[in-house]
Amino acid sequence: MRCASFLLGLVLFVSVHCQNYSLPAAKKCDPEKCKLPSCRCSSTEIPGNLKPRNTPQFVLLTFDDGVNVVNIETYRDILYNRVNSNKCPIGVTFFVSHEYTDYSLVNELYNRGFEIALHSITHKSNQTYWKEATLENVTREFVDQRILMSRFANIPRTSMQGIRSPFIQLSGDSTFQMIKDNGLTYDLSWPTVRFTGPGLWPYTLDYSSIQDCIVPPCPTASIPGVWVIPMISWTDLMGFPCSFVDGCYSTPDLKDEDAWFQFIVRAFERHYLGNRAPFGFYVHEGFVRVNPAVKRALVRFINMIQNMHDAFLVNANEVVNWVKNPVPLNEFVKQDCPRFVPAACRRTTCSGLREEESGDGEAITKRDIDDLLAVLKDSDVFEDGLDHDNDDEEGFFNKAREIMEDLQGEDIANDDETCDELTPEVGQVSEDSGQPHIDDEQDIQFDKRKLIWKIGLVLFVSVHCQNDSLPAAEKCDPEKCKLPSCRCSSTEIPGNLEPRDTPQFVLLTFDDAVTTVNIETYRDILYNRVNSNKCPIGVTFFVSHEYTDYSLVNELYNRGFEIALHSITHKSNQTYWKEATLENVTREFVDQRILMSRFANIPRTSMQGIRSPFIQLSGDSTFQMIKDNGLTYDLSWPTVRFTGPGLWPYTLDYSSIQDCIVPPCPTASIPGVWVIPMISWTDLMGFPCSFVDGCYSTPDLKDENAWFQFIVRAFERHYLGNRAPFGFYVHEGFVRVNPAVKRALVRFINMIQNMHDAFLVNANEVVNWVKNPVPLNEFVKQDCPRFVPAACRRTTCSGLKEEESGNTYYMRICNRCPRVYPWLNNPRGV
């Protein structure tokens, strides 16, 4: 299948980086000149020319980000007091970032013999910052962190020898020159999808690297003595690579321990039965913690390694040391265990510390807003496992509130920035390997959107080149803008009703593909429910194309639920959506409408709304496409300014007062197109979130009562206010893997069903009511929405080739099989 859309979530930056031309360009490696221990050519050959059976199989288990009182419990539970078969303690590497870290716990990990490595001070969420970082930038991030960590964790500076860049985003030569200049040893940030079987062994940068450049810019200079430990990708159940375990898209059921154990073992065996390149288990603790079956599978795998005579859990620096001086297995097991000097810790709690650069009185910069929004931005990439439990960092949250207050009066789309250059096209996928074709002049970043919540969210806040052919929107004139065809953007209740006379609408939406997995949740919690007016509840499904079972879309439609559009490709390159032209969005959504109608066998006119992937608007293009093609509304535009009282749906005949959180937002007059604002929730720390599963600080995921109260409090802000529609926007996976949240949601739905003045309806019903607002006592007497049931002759189609990429798919549909896999420009698959 198509890689760019399959790999849902790592936002791709495919661009050229200005390298440091003062460094000499690397030449092709000369094995006669490049000799261990100081130099090694990039190669899949085993160091020391050993045979695989004589080579220790090293296993690298790493965890990223802050060390805190929550994740330390996982580490204590699964890692402490373990030894390999050679009687040496197991090794694990922690790539630690600064914010929210408890340095007394870093000291504890060090004293347990684990490796502490560097993951930056700021962990800035603006990926472009890392991509374009200068030598000075990366030196401050990592070398200053080494000083910081040594001082506050009280561990030797020289014990920290390695780095991993946030978002595994290299900074070209700068990253590796910094390592060399400051006496560090290695980097473990560079993924490979090309050299996985046989795997690429660690090597130095004395000479040019043969490694594929997945997240450019990669180094091109000769930087002698700096070691690269390649991140050798796993292969998921669909055959696609993933650098982080929690970044794999197609995985076993998260509740199936045996399947996960086998999944891990299969990945391990590709190394163990091959050239025994180090096997990496790169993961984020939150994923392990919230998925007990995965945790148990990992423990079983660790137990297995402990009982093997030729496999060893070691840290990253130990791998480099062995490669420098490779010895066969029979000698390795006789070597002394690594030693370290224990470090004392006089544990101290410090409060009220202000970060000087962003302290009181300092100007709030554009980057401040970017970085905060990246924390607050609440798209579907935040899933169940995010670690939020750092609420003792008062300084951080106070600063964040200051920025948000400043943001209330700012339209961050209206600045002086120019549009980014268009990014190169992602390479086509090889039929033979299932991997993207990469040639010497083309580098692509290859991972998926699902990974981002686990390693940090990338948010782009920048301007968009608008379509100047459209007339600029003017300030709304209420005398000219009248319902049902026009409404000014406003918090006033339509029809000038009083809140007590206004129906409280609840909008429950789910995004992405409809599959045999998530349909079980929908059947369980949504089917056979009615509101107090005896009409069936309404729910809106924003459906994307890939992996969707169209016979199940038909089923949802026949249950009376609304089917809406979420794009054909769901491309993971957010810049693609930001810069999409009218032609682009037309192909994505209008072609999808044709596709969905044909293969789910539902009326084309029943699909009236859209939600853009990543809630990333394309400026005027999004809304012009809606108007040009007889659609009705968009539900992709969040607001944090108009939450109490909430912003009611409105049309784009005139300029909008809504804050532009994810620009570009529309500026043209596009009459008759409706905007349903995504009114943000407020999390436990007072920060906004548009998706429920995107809230940063939430109740314990196992506490049903706390979650129910959390939902009810969010609802009451609407119900006790101006009764603007209350949105429960969520992704099914979050509900499925958190049973307590699921039970809380069911309780909330039950509550709404029993209220005389609140109603679960779909998005199009909300627009229809706003067009013709009637008071509550009339609304409850109206006829229920009707639809014409749609038949489905369920058919399974296999071996469908997508012509543009050459990938092969199967589909379940309600019609005859298409000739090829439906895609952009060919939604019928003819």
TrEMBL record:
Instruction: Enumerate the GO terms in the molecular function aspect.
Output: hydrolase activity, acting on carbon-nitrogen (but not peptide) bonds
Listed under GO biological process in this entry are: carbohydrate metabolic process
Question: What keywords tag this UniProt record?
Answer: Signal
Stretch forming the signal peptide: 1-18
Outline the extent of the NodB homology domain: 54-152, 502-599
Q: Does the keyword Transport apply?
A: no
**Alphabetized PANTHER family for the sequence:** CHITIN DEACETYLASE-LIKE 9, ISOFORM A, PTHR45985
Tell me what this protein is called.
Answer: (African queen) hypothetical protein
